[in-house]
Prior knowledge:
Elements: E1 6-11, H1 20-29, E2 33-38, H2 48-55, E3 59-60, H3 72-79, E4 82-88, H4 90-97, H5 104-111, E5 116-120, H6 124-127, H7 130-141, E6 145-146, E7 150-153, E8 159-163, H8 167-179, E9 188-193, E10 198-199, E11 205-206, H9 213-224, E12 228-233, E13 242-245, H10 249-259, E14 265-268, E15 275-277, E16 297-299, H11 303-313, E17 320-327, H12 331-342, E18 346-351, E19 363-370, E20 375-382, H13 383-395
Helix pairs in contact: 1-2, 1-8, 3-5, 4-7, 9-13
Amino acid sequence: MLNGKNILIGITGGIAAYKICELIRLFKKQNANVKVICTPNAMNFVTKTTLQSLSQNEVYVDQFAIEDFKPEHISLADEADIFVIAPISANTIGKIANGICDNLLTSVACAFQKPVIIAPAMNSGMWNSNAVQGNLKKLDNEGYHILAPEDGFLACGTTGRGRLCDIGKIFDKTVEILAQSKTLLGQKIVVTAGGTIEEIDAVRYMSNYSSGKMGICLADRAYELGADVVLITTVRVEKPYEIIGVKSAEEMKQVVESEFANADCIIMAAAVADYRAKTISDKKLKKTEENEITIKFVKNPDILKGLCDMKTKAKGKTPLIIGFCAESEDLLKNAEKKIAQKGCDFLIANDISRKDIGFASNYNEVTVFRSDGGMKKLEKATKKEIAKQIFEEIYG
């Protein structure tokens, strides 16, 4: 299963470090090429000789022990297909999440642009701390694959959540990621995300509750599948693919339409404001003695409809157009009407009346409508999983 794959393993200081010997053995049994990086503290729990014997490769520890004049943190990152850090301590989680590169392992993690699996192991109090959970959230948002620790008896003598997950889970997750077919290799996928910001005056604006999470998950999934991804977003985010930041619906329209000719698929996951202020004051509007204020709004361009019209008029190859709609009532009826009006290839309908999915949530439940009249409901799951299923529907 792993024949010819280059797997980089990172080991940090923790009693569970000894368990990684078995993981290396499993990888080698599947004909993978395994290299190991250890933090200096990891050497207190497992020996370099043992790891070298199992991996049949040099074990790297010192950041500046450079041979052949190659910066190791760059060469190791370039060679590997995946980076598995297990066990990863609270200390190293914090360093990677905040861009601290004070040893070889954290430097490689910072430079690594391919899939990264982390399997934490620590005291349950540390695991439950706001600091650790906040850092894990950062890494999750950046696309790290996190295998949570399990409940059990811990080295500190207590029982709780914190022990390294089963080695088999780490092995299976590695195989799963490396086995993913790059089905979108050579395809350019454009995704929009976030709620547009429509200015009113120098300090005020109108927007909506969209967090951009669904669009970002779709862009992440397209990237995992090998696509050349462009994310057009109102939300600040750092990703290994191209990011174009915008604010208003007008800005988003201009950027999306400029990408139309070279795109293979455009996914309009952003929540675009229907209206904007007719006149934007370059100064702050002052409060008056009046109890009311009147601001005139005008319609924003319908970006999705405009793209569909461009597709109808274009000659030759045109991109797939996927729209999103947020409904608080009559979801199916309104979505069926909307896909007919817009003319897109697919329409993804969200029910925003529910508090357990949608805006700001990490979960979603959607219905995928096709232009040929077909539809499929995707049951509640994480937005990452929903993004995966949406691509299966589009390209399956």
